[in-house]
């Protein structure tokens, strides 16, 4: 695979990465297109196949793994697989787009390792684990057990932040949105925010 630029936003669930990615997708001057992930998890109300995720059965997902169709994939929770199809990225590159990802921390780092010169990997850091739990509860989309699983996973994920090119602290959403826009705008215009630059934490 070869093509345009890749911009990865990763974070523990509830950190605000999806809000940031949606904001950036609304800026036509960035020429971004969203990479829709595949998943074996059940579809939630109002989610659409091909828009929010490519929904698959567990057996379908495992067949794609066997066929080596994924750029990256992970079993995030038991029988809940997530992955990025190679065909999805190739399709967006063929349209001349910069591809933006809203994916799990492990998946984001795998993409960074595979395409080190083409990928800007950004970690979105929440104010605290306690704040994460509050945000996840406000969603009202998951059980208490699933929320607790996400919180336990978040503590591990936060330790990976230094492996990313940039860290954005989402303590104030408006500030985080502006920092993300400035960072991505500079990257897609070939300014000095290359992935090979020293890691720096956004204030």
Describe this structure in words.
- There is one protein chain.
- The protein is α/β, with parallel strands linked by helices.
- It has a single domain, classed as Rossmann fold, CATH 3.40.50.
- 39% of the residues lie in helices and 22% in strands.
- It has seven helices and ten strands.
- The strands form two sheets. The protein has a six-stranded parallel beta sheet, sandwiched between helices. It has a four-stranded mixed beta sheet with strand order 4-3-6-5.
- Strand 9 (166-169), helix 7 (173-188) and strand 10 form a beta-alpha-beta unit.
- Helix 5 packs antiparallel against helix 6 (144-158).
- The longest helix has 16 residues, at 173-188.
- The radius of gyration is 16 Å and the shape is globular.
User: Quick one: biggest sheet?
Assistant: 6 strands, parallel
Oligomer state of the chains in this structure: single chain
Structural class: alpha/beta
Return residue spans where pLDDT drops below 50 for at least 5 consecutive residues. Answer: 194-203
Query: Number of DSSP helices?
Result: 7
Shape: globular
Short description:
The chain has about 200 residues and is of the alpha/beta class. Helices cover about 40% and strands about 20% of the residues.
């Amino acid at each position: 695979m070869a093509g345009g630029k890749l911009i990865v936003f990763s974070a523990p669930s509830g950190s605000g990465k999806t809000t940031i990615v949606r904001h950036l997708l609304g800026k036509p001057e960035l020429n971004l297109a969203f990479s829709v992930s595949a998943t074996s998890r059940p579809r939630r109300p109002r989610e659409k196949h091909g828009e929010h995720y490519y929904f698959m059965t567990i057996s379908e997902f495992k067949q794609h793994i066997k066929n080596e169709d994924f750029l990256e994939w992970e079993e995030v929770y038991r029988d809940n697989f997530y992955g990025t199809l190679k065909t999805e990225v190739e399709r967006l590159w063929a349209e001349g787009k910069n591809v933006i990802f809203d994916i799990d921390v492990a998946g984001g780092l795998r993409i960074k390792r595979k395409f080190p010169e083409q990928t800007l990997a950004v970690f979105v850091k929440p104010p605290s684990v306690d704040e994460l739990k509050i945000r996840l509860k406000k969603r009202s989309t998951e059980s208490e057990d699933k929320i607790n699983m996400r919180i336990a996973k978040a503590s591990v994920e936060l330790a990976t932040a230094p492996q990313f090119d940039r860290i954005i602290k989402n303590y104030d959403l408006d500030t985080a949105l502006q920092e993300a826009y400035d960072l991505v705008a500079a990257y897609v215009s070939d300014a000095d925010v290359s992935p090979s630059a020293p890691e720096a934490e956004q204030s």
